[in-house]
């Protein structure tokens, strides 16, 4: 890896250790927004990493984004989720939006002064996006948006919501940019979650929300294609988040087994525990290698990227669940109490197997890529 990436990783790692990790337990315990972590990311200009310099961003490529998410997640999964959802919520605008729409939304998000989210999941729609019931109907030169979105990360904190809605026939969908203050927008109660408790999550409701035509991302019937085109990137970021959580739990477990003594010697001297640590290390490094390979394919525009990133999302999240579970085991009874971070990390890891396409869906996508390759 280039020195520039190494230097960037070191910077984010120090930032996470000094400014984010000390507050992660409190954020989880109180289920509050990670204000300290977000402030640190804003000050370091990490919030604007993927955006063009002309829009106030840092011109960071996908690999730098993956590294940032990985290092932040090793300290606090919730803070990493707020960050990557901001990027996902603006990705369609950046890729396909008009210059006017980009200028309206991106600079404040890049500066960390505004938040973003994307709205796809509905009460009866998860993996099957084609079944979306939220509708957008023309109203003169404007549009009227009606429907309900569920499990929306960054809601109601975010200012901007990229909403996938049915805009015509059975295959016609558009992406509509909705502001939190638009009349007709409301939010459900805060979801009480198993993990990622510092990431705000709620329903977003649209009751005949009127939107000007300028708030539609490009072609109002091509939104499904636009969103599908962003899934490679968003899955890479979720895989990086899972990988970071696994790394954080692994580092904590290694430190604990070096310090904790039983039978007159540190736990790190016991052969069975060493075997567990070795397996955890292999799972982390193999997942990282696959993720970085997939990221390289995405950045090169290689058509094999879609299958490969599904493999990476699958492996990173499954391995994160395994590694964090073993980290709890290596802590013994202390792993089961909130005084140590590994129980939080185990809870955080679980959702990475579910969102951004469940791992069952990822397996179907991997198999599809295998057969298409033949």
UniProtKB/TrEMBL annotation:
InterPro entries: Acyl-CoA_DH_CS, Acyl-CoA_Oxase/DH_mid-dom, Acyl-CoA_Oxase/DH_mid-dom_sf, AcylCo_DH-like_C, AcylCo_DH/oxidase_C, AcylCoA_DH/ox_N, AcylCoA_DH/ox_N_sf, AcylCoA_DH/oxidase_NM_dom_sf. Its cofactor is FAD. PROSITE patterns: ACYL_COA_DH_2 (PS00073). The keyword Flavoprotein applies. Belongs to the acyl-CoA dehydrogenase family. The lineage of its organism: Bacteria, Bacillati, Actinomycetota, Actinomycetes, Pseudonocardiales. SUPFAM superfamilies: Acyl-CoA dehydrogenase C-terminal domain-like (SSF47203), Acyl-CoA dehydrogenase NM domain-like (SSF56645). Pfam families: Acyl-CoA_dh_1, Acyl-CoA_dh_M, Acyl-CoA_dh_N. Residues 222-370 form the Acyl-CoA dehydrogenase/oxidase C-terminal domain. Keywords: FAD, Flavoprotein, Oxidoreductase. One of its GO terms (molecular function) is flavin adenine dinucleotide binding. This is Acyl-CoA dehydrogenase. Residues 6-113 form the Acyl-CoA dehydrogenase/oxidase N-terminal domain. Residues 118-209 form the Acyl-CoA oxidase/dehydrogenase middle domain. It comes from the Bacteria.
């Amino acid at each position: 890896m280039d020195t520039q990436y190494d230097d960037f990783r070191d910077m984010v790692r120090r930032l996470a250790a000094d400014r984010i990790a000390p507050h992660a337990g409190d954020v989880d315990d109180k289920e509050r927004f990670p204000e300290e972590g977000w402030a640190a990311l804003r000050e370091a200009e990490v919030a604007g990493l993927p955006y063009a310099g002309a829009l106030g961003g840092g011109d960071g490529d996908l690999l730098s984004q993956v590294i940032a998410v990985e290092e932040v997640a090793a300290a606090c999964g919730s803070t990493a989720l707020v960050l990557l959802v901001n990027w996902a919520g603006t990705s369609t605008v950046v890729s396909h939006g008009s210059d006017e729409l980009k200028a309206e939304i991106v600079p404040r998000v890049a500066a960390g002064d505004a938040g973003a989210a994307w709205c796809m999941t509905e009460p009866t729609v998860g993996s099957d996006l084609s079944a979306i019931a939220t509708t957008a109907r023309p109203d003169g030169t404007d549009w009227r948006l009606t429907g309900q979105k569920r499990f929306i990360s960054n809601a109601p904190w975010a200012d901007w919501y990229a909403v996938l809605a049915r805009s015509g026939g059975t295959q016609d969908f558009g992406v509509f940019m909705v502001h939190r203050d638009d009349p007709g927008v409301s939010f459900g109660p805060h979801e009480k979650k198993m993990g990622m408790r510092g990431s705000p999550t709620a329903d977003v409701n649209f009751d005949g929300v009127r939107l000007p035509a300028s708030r539609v991302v490009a072609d109002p019937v091509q939104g499904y294609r636009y969103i599908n085109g962003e899934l490679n990137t968003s899955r890479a970021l979720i895989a990086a988040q899972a990988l970071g959580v696994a790394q954080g739990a692994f580092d904590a477990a290694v430190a604990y087994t070096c310090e904790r003594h039983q039978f007159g010697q540190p736990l790190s001297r016991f052969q069975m525990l060493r075997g567990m640590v070795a397996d955890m290390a292999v799972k982390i490094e193999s997942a990282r290698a696959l993720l970085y390979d997939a990221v390289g394919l995405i950045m090169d525009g290689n058509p094999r990227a879609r299958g490969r990133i599904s493999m990476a999302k699958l492996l990173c999240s499954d391995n994160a669940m395994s590694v964090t579970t073993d980290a709890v085991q290596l802590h013994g009874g202390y792993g089961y109490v909130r005084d140590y971070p590994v129980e939080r990390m185990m809870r955080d890891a679980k959702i990475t197997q579910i969102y951004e396409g469940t791992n069952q869906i990822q397996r179907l996508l991997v198999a599809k890529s295998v057969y298409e390759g033949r």
